[in-house]
Amino acid sequence: MRGECGMTRKRESDMRDGKAAPKEKGRHGVVAETQVLETDRVASRAGALIFAIALFVLVFALVMGAWWLAFAAFDVVGVGVSLVVAWLAISTVHIAQQWERIVVLRFGRFSRVSGPGLVFTFPIVEHCALSVDMRTRSVPFGAKETLTADLIPLDIDAVLYWMVWDAEKACMEINNYSLAVQLAAQTALRDAIGRSSVAEITIRRNQLDKELTEVLDAKTSEWGITVMSVEIRDIVVPEALQEAMSLEAQAEQRKKARIILMEAEQAISEMASEVGKTYDGNENALAIRRMHLLYESVRDTGGTIVLPSSFAEGFGDVFPDDVSKIVGK
Question: CA-based angle 34:40:42, to the nearest 5?
């Protein structure tokens, strides 16, 4: 557990300094690099540390004072006894923050989960095996160059929100539960990508988030962990394929545009056929239609229509006889 805590502190220190998180190698040898874009302040444990130091100094001073009263001397034995008693004191009293739960073992067997506040243990007989953070955590993860169902490599970045709800299971059922959750999330994401095409991943983005959340929650519930949500942040297609996919999309759009144009032409032809049947054999309606066309052509522009004499003869049945004679001259 000390090794795990040391790795966690180093990772948190790198995050506070704005450094990228370490690369983790997945099951297929694919390196998944997670980078923290922005970090916030981490809650301080300085209060618990100050309390432990103050308790150690206080007990040491009291024992040394009692030793002086009993033997009237400060010798090595007195200092040794004072150190041992002070160490036993800080091993007995612990502080758990409001968001922490402490797993206590007695002779190596699970005893209880204590906290928050003051936690008392029997020295040597009991010890604190793990301090579990019960807050919601956000972990960036991703899948690099993972093949889709149509054999296109994708780079996907996502964020996982999860929390520990049972400190006992998180301590007893799995070693390094934080790393296990991240690896499970990467594996589930790769499996989901391999079952879908690029178009399905892009269109069904929200549905993919829900599927990953359900799969991960079912897997991690045995460890006392619940996955609250998975959010895909970015989907990156390799540059070598972006141009080809762009040409394919343009061709598909042209195809749709031509189909829509042909459908419009078909509708217009059907309507024109019906209109032709309406005017067929009805000279009066056709003449009125000609007059409407002439009126519409000069209404907005205020122009004048000049008709050739040979063409004007065709309108003889539209205009009155005296007007036809004048136009025909």
Answer: 100
Minimal CA–CA distance to 116: which of 105, 101, 104? 101
Among candidates 203, 201, 222, 223, which has minimal Cα distance to 212? 201
Token pair 């970090």 is found at 39
Instruction: Find tokens 């793990």 and name the residue.
Output: 130
CA distance 248 to 255: 11
Task: Using alpha carbons, select from 134, 137, 136, 156 the residue that is nearest to residue 145.
Answer: 156
Per-residue pLDDT tens over the stretch 266-298: 888 888 777 777 777 777 777 777 777 777 777
Q: Which pTM does this prediction carry?
A: 0.60
Residues in Cβ contact with 92 at an 8 Å cutoff, skipping those fewer than 6 apart: 120, 121, 122, 123
Query: How much of the chain is in helix, strand and coil states, percent to nearest 5?
Result: 55, 20, 25
Name the strand (E) or helix (H) holding 72.
Answer: none
Q: What digits encode the pLDDT tens for the residues 56-95?
A: 999 999 999 998 888 888 888 989 999 999 999 998 998 8
DSSP string, 168-204: HHHHHT-SSHHHHHHHHHHHHHHHHHHTS-HHHHHHT
- Nearest-angstrom CA–CA distance, 290 and 296: 10
Rounded CA separation 24/212 (Å):
20
SS3 67: helix
Beta-carbon count within 10 A of 132 CB: 21
Nearest alpha-carbon partner for 164 in 99, 76, 243 = 99
Q: Is there a contact between 170 and 164 (Cβ–Cβ < 8 Å)? A: yes
Helix segments in 177-320, DSSP class H = 177-194, 198-203, 205-220, 239-279, 283-299, 309-312
